[in-house]
Design brief:
Elements: E1 2-9, H1 19-27, E2 36-41, E3 47-53, E4 67-71, E5 74-84, H2 87-96, H3 106-117, E6 127-135, E7 140-145, E8 154-157, E9 161-165, H4 168-177, H5 187-196, E10 209-211, E11 216-221, E12 224-225, E13 229-230, H6 234-240, H7 250-261, E14 268-271, H8 276-289, E15 294-300, H9 311-320, E16 324-330, H10 332-345, H11 354-365, E17 370-372, H12 377-380, H13 386-395, H14 403-414, H15 436-444, H16 453-456, H17 458-468, H18 470-476, H19 484-510, E18 515-517, H20 523-534, H21 541-545, H22 554-557, H23 568-573, H24 578-594
Parallel strand pairs: 14-15, 14-17, 15-16, 17-18
Antiparallel strand pairs: 1-3, 1-9, 2-3, 4-5, 5-6, 6-7, 7-11, 8-9, 8-10, 11-12, 11-13
Helix pairs in contact: 1-4, 2-3, 5-17, 6-20, 7-8, 11-19, 13-15, 13-19, 15-18, 15-19
Length: about 600
């Protein structure tokens, strides 16, 4: 886990790569890698790589990056962020084929794998990753990002030079160091933030800075960037899957994923709430790791002694599995003290991530560099109430002939009363009920499209909505999938999980030099369950919770799902509804990010 950067002057008329610019990009990512740094610049100064290191696998200096491999076909250089969980199996295979290794790192495995398989190497990887490999013989740069988009990869192309990094803010730092102005705002990114509370990929807040799509590779040579090539796509798997396989042993599949996610040369802890996802992981991890597993729970002083307090039940779970429990409580004063730092660490605006920021801070204070999270359990096992609400809305109101057109007319008539006499989303209920994409937007939206002009102004709102094309994208991403729950799964994984949950886990963990691993978000596990999910009878949360050999405590199994609450609205506004609090928080976050 680290931060990586690459700058490639691919056009012969482009100025050479400046070490100061590459260094500025790297320095902006210092929090991602407190254990070391490196910079490599080619003799002709057409290509440079940089790296900030958080040492997790092979802690020696031999595993420092950027790393070079003297290949029979020419030198290869790499800068890499992430972890390859099956690197030991891949190494054995490569050694059997005659490859010689000089480190015990997963980074070197990537170089040897590229040497043998080229761009197709990514299909062999199990893990979370974003990397840049420079191929000296082919005079080209390969960028790659893992299948779910767990690790970030952003790039800026000005038509002559391409810069890539783990953070948007790092690329902006490079522009400043080179005496170049920031790109203009991307209206689609701004509109997307107020629609969802996050910036939907591939957009950022800035024109010309894009996210490399999850599950793709990008090749850049003297002809410039090609088109991203997809090697893994969630919706495609769910659309192509059939119900040809027999039942699977869910417990064995989860153990396999968790075993791989414990691969490290440093201690690995587990985030523990009172929910089924993290409790299941603790139960399974106790089987794999034995007694003394480090678990960490975040509690809020404002919730102490109330039904929203996660701590008592989490401590019961930890005790049941013999874990070494660490409980940390935070209060509004902690939020106030850390607010500026939190907003500075946030790479793109998000309405979430506060809890992850504080639990990561607590984990780092306990000396941990790696923590396991239950993120992704709700998306994989249909844990949100939207898995039933969205299909019910489409199958009910949405089936009325002409309902969308009637709803659009009704919204026009009722919108003046929205927010005053009616809940903000109420005018869109009929209009956004006739298909899954619209119903998902109605459920997940922070602000509805017709509210954006009052926030962004008419011109930016109009341009942003048109460029984002959100309703079309939401519908096409699941249009080939049949089962209603599978449609919702694709939407949740490709939008909410990718653009918010995973991104928040990255920046909030990296703010404290903590690697957050997500065994429920695993391409191998997903592929093994895709047939059942696509057929509409994928395993549910109770199936998941039944997987540990030692059953979860009955108080956990029988507890109604409540979600994870963060009292941000109380800290900021002194009360109010959840929706009001999130809307107010979004505007504060937005202002902080566009002025930073």
């Amino acid at each position: 886990m680290c931060g990586f950067a690459a700058v490639f002057s691919y056009d012969t008329n482009a100025p050479p790569v400046e070490a100061d610019v590459l260094g500025a990009i790297n320095h902006a990512m210092s929090r991602r890698g407190p254990d070391g740094e490196g910079l490599w610049l080619a003799d002709d100064k057409r290509i440079g790589l940089a790296h900030k290191r958080l040492a997790i696998i092979d802690l020696s200096n031999d595993a420092a990056q950027p790393m070079m491999l003297e290949s029979p076909t020419g030198r290869l250089h790499i800068s890499f962020n992430g972890e390859i969980y099956n690197f030991r199996e891949l190494r054995q295979e490569l050694e059997a084929a005659g490859e010689t290794f000089h480190t015990f790192s997963d980074t070197e495995v990537l170089l040897h794998l590229y040497q043998r398989h080229g761009r197709a190497m990514v299909t062999r990887l199990r893990g979370m990753f974003a990397f840049a490999i420079w191929d000296e013989q082919r005079r080209g740069l390969l960028l790659a990002r893992d299948g779910f988009g767990i690790k970030p990869l952003y790039y800026l192309d000005d038509g002559k030079t391409l810069s890539a990094a783990s953070q948007v803010k790092a690329l902006l730092a490079g522009l400043t160091a080179g005496g170049r102005p920031r790109p203009r705002f991307d209206a689609a990114g701004h509109a997307g933030f107020f629609l969802f509370g996050n910036v939907p990929e591939p957009h950022t807040l800035y024109k010309n800075i894009r996210a490399l799509p999850a599950g793709t590779t990008l090749w850049i040579d003297e002809n410039g960037p090609g088109k991203p090539e997809t090697f893994f796509d969630i919706a495609t798997h769910l659309a192509a899957a059939n119900d040809g396989d027999g039942p699977v042993n869910l417990g064995d599949l989860l153990r396999n994923s968790l075993k791989h996610h414990f691969v490290a040369d440093v201690p690995v802890g587990v985030f523990l709430s009172s929910g089924l996802d993290s409790a299941t992981l603790v139960g399974l991890a106790a089987e794999l790791q034995g007694a003394g597993l480090d678990t960490l729970t975040l509690g809020f002083e404002e919730f102490k002694g109330t039904a929203n307090d996660e701590v008592p039940l989490a401590e019961t779970i930890a005790s049941a599995y013999g874990a070494r429990q660490h409980t940390v409580r935070v209060a509004g004063s902690d939020f106030a003290n850390d607010l500026d730092d939190l907003l500075d660490a946030m790479d793109q605006p998000s309405i979430d991530g506060v809890n992850t920021y504080f639990v990561a801070k607590a984990a780092a204070a306990e000396g941990l560099k790696v923590a396991i999270s239950g993120l992704g359990g709700d998306e994989l096992f249909a844990g949100y109430d939207g898995f039933s609400q969205i299909p019910n809305l489409v199958a009910g109101i949405g089936r009325v002939p002409g309902i969308a057109s009637f709803g659009r007319l009704l919204r026009g008539l009722s919108s003046p009363f929205s927010g005053a006499l009616l809940p903000p989303k109420a005018p869109g209920l009929l209009e956004f009920s006739s298909n899954f994409g619209d119903a998902y937007l109605l459920r997940r939206a922070l602000f509805m499209p017709w509210e954006l002009p009052s926030i962004l102004g008419n011109d930016m709102a109009r341009e942003g909505i048109q460029a984002l094309d959100i309703r079309h994208r939401l519908n096409t991403c699941q249009s080939e999938i049949n089962a209603p729950k599978a449609k919702v799964a694709a939407l949740e994984m490709c939008w909410y999980m990718r653009n918010q949950l995973l991104r928040d886990a990255d920046w909030a963990g990296m703010a404290h030099g903590l690697e957050i691993r997500v065994p429920f978000v695993d391409t191998v596990l997903f592929t093994q369950l895709a047939r059942a999910i696509a057929a509409g009878h994928g395993p549910g949360k109770q199936d998941m919770a039944a997987s540990p050999e030692k059953p979860l405590p009955a108080t956990v199994l029988n507890r109604p799902k409540s979600g994870f609450f963060v009292p941000v609205r109380d800290w900021l506004e002194g009360g109010g509804t959840k929706e009001r609090g999130l809307r107010g928080w979004s505007k504060r976050v937005y202002q902080a990010q566009i002025s930073s």
